[in-house]
Design goal:
- By secondary structure, this protein is mainly beta.
- Among the domains are: 75 residues, Immunoglobulin-like (Sandwich), CATH 2.60.40; 231 residues, TolB, C-terminal domain (Neuraminidase, 6 Propeller), CATH 2.120.10.
- A hairpin with a 6-residue loop joins strand 38 and strand 39.
- The longest helix has 6 residues.
- The model has no long low-confidence stretch (mean pLDDT 92).
Length: 661
């Protein structure tokens, strides 16, 4: 596949070479490949140029000196090292039309990204900092062009966007006001140049003198009358006025900066749009309107004179659902001149929302593949019938999860079923999916609060229907279906249930029967918290992961008998331990089980089907974790992982490259 995306560093290239008289050497972009079998297979590690497309050119020479300069070529595109850094609070520079947010490298907050809101181009300003002193909040001054930051240590800095170091404005602890490691918020009033901090430990707002660094109490902590503050408050200032939104009490107040008095402007108890826990608050430059961003994908406008509320953009909007630009945890900034709100971390993108019509648009361009953005891709399967990947894409809390498809070559994405596509229940919460290798029908385990069922999805129309559970089919009742696996030949779906049972579901009738459950069906040791299931190639044996006891069980599907198949703590099967195995898939090409566990970033675990022996493969770069799908013909692995990525993984090089994002 051309144009796969890589982290900065290097890639490992492998291939085959043949010649009638023999191959003398293989070179890949100037790097000599190594081989132990006369280049029937070879391997080379090639350095990549960061932030650009890299053409990999294979040059082959035979024993007679004949050379093929371009025997094969591939292109690999390299991510900028700050690509995953659109989450968190942001600030807007209206002078140059840039959004600022902090940048992350290897767990450290290492700088600032400036994103042009017109074309999505990005500039990176390196400011290497330890995690504890990361940039946590930003404020931008239009008059001085200065970017200010509140750090994790509670300091206020003038951020340098050049080689010079940052300037300290206010040390944490100035005037005995310490806010390190606690909830805090900063805002700057561009009409006066005044900077304010909300400090959760004191439940109070302080002004910050940008010359001396002094922190002076403005409101709260005994200063002023009116509604008290809670622990989680956002503040915004404009046109000489100061406002605060209290998420715990669902109310927007104005603060008198002279007396500290707090006047209620609007609350969740008044008429109009509902107010609740907010992740963002901005006020327009004339202090006429305030905008609140809520974590169920809604933006609400509040009139600062009347207190009336208007939904700007939110749940059920067709344009946002079609684009998948969902708003959940994010920062927000306001561009009054263009009439735009800018939000970070919306489906892992920077997006713009038109204040008048609520239309959403992407600022940051897609990395690879066209189509709706991914939000939180999870359980993934290879669809042999349609030659595509299917996966569950979790959206904001107010929507049912989608099932999306991605082309395994181009990375293009489209929606199979969602709130907008397909008929049927929209109260579902999909946990796992399986796909028929005969007709491409999709089955999903629905683990929502309202329903505990198996849903069948038409792969063409996206229509959904309950086929077992929630009134469909007879037999023992589901508690909450988790992992599922399909036996196409027998038309039986095996379902791990939250009750601790392994069910067999007849796909013709929807009837349920126990395949195995300690104390009810089958002999053998009791599992603790089963979560996922895979089938042996002969379909007479199932493998079940136990999260609680970090075991894999082998279940005889005729009798329901259980035995421990692989477990480090029980000394069954050799190799590194599996810690809290969550998902399991069968790799029929290598005769192994592929296991996702909670061993941090410890790569992928392969379990031999004959012996139970375990091998942990540590991937190069960061692309080796996530839910796994296996192409049963090629043996390629595909992973769904944060941040909104679909990755193709090659076990021969222990390497994952991004296919779609």
């Amino acid at each position: 596949m051309d144009g796969l995306k890589s982290n900065p560093g290097s890639v490992t290239v492998r291939g085959k070479a043949a010649d009638d008289f023999g191959v003398k050497s293989v070179w890949v972009s100037g790097v000599e490949a190594t081989s132990v079998n006369g280049f029937q297979s070879w391997i080379a590690e090639v350095s990549l140029e960061s932030g650009s497309d890299n053409e990999l050119v294979v040059r082959v020479e035979d024993v007679n000196g004949n050379i093929t300069e371009r025997a094969a070529t591939r292109a690999v595109s390299v991510f900028p090292h700050y690509r995953e850094s659109v989450c968190g609070q942001i600030a807007y520079d209206p002078i140059d039309g840039r959004v600022f947010n902090s940048a992350t490298i290897d767990g450290y907050y290492s700088g600032v990204i400036a994103t042009n809101v017109q074309n999505g181009s990005r500039s990176y300003f390196s400011r290497y900092q330890e995690y504890d002193n990361r940039y946590r909040q930003f404020a931008f001054s239009r008059s001085s062009g200065q970017l200010y930051a509140l750090t994790g240590d509670g300091d206020v800095l003038e951020v340098s966007l050049g080689p010079a170091p940052d300037n300290m404005v206010s040390w944490d602890g100035s005037n005995d006001v310490e806010i390190s490691d606690s909830d805090a918020w900063i805002t700057l009033d561009n009409s006066t140049g005044a900077l304010f901090i909300y400090a959760a430990p004191y439940k109070a707002v302080y002004s910050v003198d940008l010359t001396t660094g002094a922190r002076n109490l403005v409101s709260g902590n005994g200063m002023g009358t009116g509604p008290d503050f809670s622990y989680r408050v956002a503040i915004a200032a404009a046109n000489g006025r100061l406002f605060a939104y209290d998420s715990a009490n669902y109310r927007l107040v104005e603060i008198d900066k002279n007396t500290g008095d707090r006047r209620l402007v609007s609350s969740g108890e008044t008429d109009g749009e509902y107010l609740s826990y907010a992740d963002g608050l901005v006020v327009d430059e004339n202090a006429e309107k305030a905008y609140l961003s809520f974590d169920w994908d809604e933006i609400t406008e509040v009139d600062l004179v009347s207190g009336e509320k208007r939904l700007v953009s939110g749940s059920g909007r067709q344009d946002s659902l079609e684009s998948n630009l969902m708003v959940d945890f994010y920062g927000m900034a306001l561009d009054s001149e263009r009439g735009q709100l800018y939000l970070s971390c919306a489906s892992h993108q920077l997006i713009a929302i038109d204040i008048e019509n609520g239309k959403r648009a992407r600022i940051t361009p897609p990395e690879r593949g066209s189509g709706p953005a991914n939000d939180s891709p999870a359980s993934i399967r290879f669809d042999k019938v349609h030659n595509r990947l299917l996966y569950i894409n979790g959206l904001a809390v107010s929507y049912m999860p989608e099932i999306m498809a991605v082309d395994p070559v181009s990375g293009d994405r489209h929606i199979i079923t969602s709130d907008l596509k397909g008929e049927g229940s929209t109260d579902s919460y999909f946990r796992d999916l399986a796909v028929s290798g005969r007709d491409g029908k999709i089955y999903a385990s629905d683990n929502s609060y309202w329903t505990a069922a198996i849903v069948e999805v038409d792969p063409e129309t996206g229509n959904r229907k309950f086929i077992s559970g929630n009134g469909a089919g007879l037999g023992p009742v589901f508690s909450g279906p988790l992992g599922i696996e399909l036996d196409d030949e027998a038309a039986v779906l095996y379902v791990v249930d939250g009750s601790g049972a392994l069910f067999a579901v007849d796909l013709q009738t929807g009837n349920r029967s126990l395949a195995s459950q300690p104390g009810a069906k089958g002999e053998g040791p009791e599992w603790g918290e089963p979560s996922s299931v895979a089938l042996h190639p002969n379909h007479s044996i199932a493998y079940v992961t136990d999260v609680e006891q970090s075991r894999i069980y082998r279940v005889d599907l005729r009798s329901g008998d259980r035995e421990i198949f692989s477990s480090d703590s029980d000394s069954i099967g050799g190799g590194p331990p599996i810690v809290m195995p969550w998902q399991i898939r069968l790799d029929p090409v290598r005769n192994k089980l592929v296991v996702k566990d909670y061993h941090g970033h410890g790569g992928m675990v392969f379990v031999d089907l004959e012996t139970g022996d375990r091998e942990r493969q540590l991937p190069s770069g960061s692309h080796g974790n996530g839910d796994v799908a296996v192409d049963p013909d090629t043996g390629l692995y595909y992973l769904s992982q944060w941040p909104g990525s679909i990755v193709v993984y090659d076990s021969g090089t222990a390497q994952g490259l991004v296919l779609s994002q």
